[in-house]
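Q: I'm building a small set of examples for a reading group on sequence design. Run inverse folding on the following structure and report the sequence directly after it, with nothing in between.
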């Protein structure tokens, strides 16, 4: 009996020592957040905002830096996590959330299984809104569907804007013609003001404030159940108004990764105790008044998902039946 008690005490002592070591690990360390895009964009902005606040919630208060690693639509940085980066919990990564759904739809192109990473969390859902310029006099999706043709700009296939335009066209029946050749959203906005384009589908936080305050645009549909304080409350969520159940299932797949609009992951090889520390710190940061104040100042969405809840979103995407996957491919490949 005495030997058994001594063994238990010994095990508890080892666990306590391991926990203490994990708590001390980050003291004097630097955590690098790899942003899979160049500086100045939405992913970079969110990464730098997180870096300014998260260190306060990690034992040892490590310095957190952002390292931009663009390439392959942000996937270069994802591959780096397991190929080259340290596996000790000092490297995180943020990447294009659309790659999760694309990996399910086109595994032959994106050879990444996002279930295999340690999910730290996501700052917000993606809130893409499709809108029309005010001079068209269109206020609702039904009115937009009644138009003989509308012109929206395109910066390339596979973006959130492109996906939502194809949903409007191929699921809701909007007679939408995509006009290519725009290098970025800034050029698209100039074309909209000139009357060359009728509208766009874009991140609500990226739409010029003066357009919103001046009622220069009329939003007709949104891609997320999340909303924003300055978004009119009657703008419908696309899945809620799906024309039928099959269309609803297809959109659930196409828009599922929106729930992880600003994701942060770590290598699968990071020790479990450090993953717990990072997840707890991420969760605390999402409630930090200073962090929230900066989010509001930058007019960014905040609807966090942490740890295993984020991982479950990914698991659900991979569990979607093959026939729905094939139907979704038809929507986006048209």
């Amino acid at each position: 009996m005495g030997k058994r008690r001594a063994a238990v005490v010994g095990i508890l002592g080892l666990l306590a020592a391991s926990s203490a070591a994990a708590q001390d690990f980050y003291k004097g360390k630097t955590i690098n957040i790899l942003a899979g895009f160049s500086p100045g964009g939405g992913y970079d902005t969110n990464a730098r905002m997180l870096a300014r606040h998260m260190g306060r919630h990690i034992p040892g208060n490590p310095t957190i830096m952002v390292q931009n690693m663009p390439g392959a639509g942000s996937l270069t940085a994802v591959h780096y996590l397991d190929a080259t980066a340290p596996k000790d919990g000092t490297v995180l990564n943020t990447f294009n959330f659309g790659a999760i759904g694309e990996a399910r739809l086109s595994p032959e192109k994106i050879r990444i299984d996002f279930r295999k990473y340690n999910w730290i969390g996501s700052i917000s859902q993606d809130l893409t809104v499709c809108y029309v310029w005010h001079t068209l006099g269109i206020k609702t999706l039904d009115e937009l569907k009644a138009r003989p043709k509308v012109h929206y700009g395109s910066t390339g296939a596979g973006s959130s804007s492109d996906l939502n335009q194809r949903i409007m066209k191929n699921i809701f029946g909007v007679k939408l013609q995509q006009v290519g050749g725009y290098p970025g959203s800034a050029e698209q906005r100039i074309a909209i003001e000139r009357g060359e384009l009728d509208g766009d589908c874009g991140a609500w936080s990226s739409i010029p404030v003066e357009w919103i305050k001046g009622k220069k645009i009329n939003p007709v549909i949104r891609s997320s159940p999340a909303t924003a304080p300055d978004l009119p409350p009657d703008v419908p969520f696309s899945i809620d108004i799906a024309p039928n159940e099959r269309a609803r299932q297809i959109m659930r797949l196409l828009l599922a990764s929106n729930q992880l609009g600003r994701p942060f992951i770590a290598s699968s090889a990071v020790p479990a105790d450090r993953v717990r520390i990072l997840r707890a710190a991420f969760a605390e940061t999402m409630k930090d008044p200073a962090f929230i104040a900066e989010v509001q100042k930058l007019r960014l969405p905040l609807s966090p998902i942490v740890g295993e809840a984020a991982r479950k979103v990914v698991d659900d995407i991979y569990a979607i039946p093959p026939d729905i996957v094939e139907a979704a491919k038809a929507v986006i490949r048209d």
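The mean pLDDT is 90.
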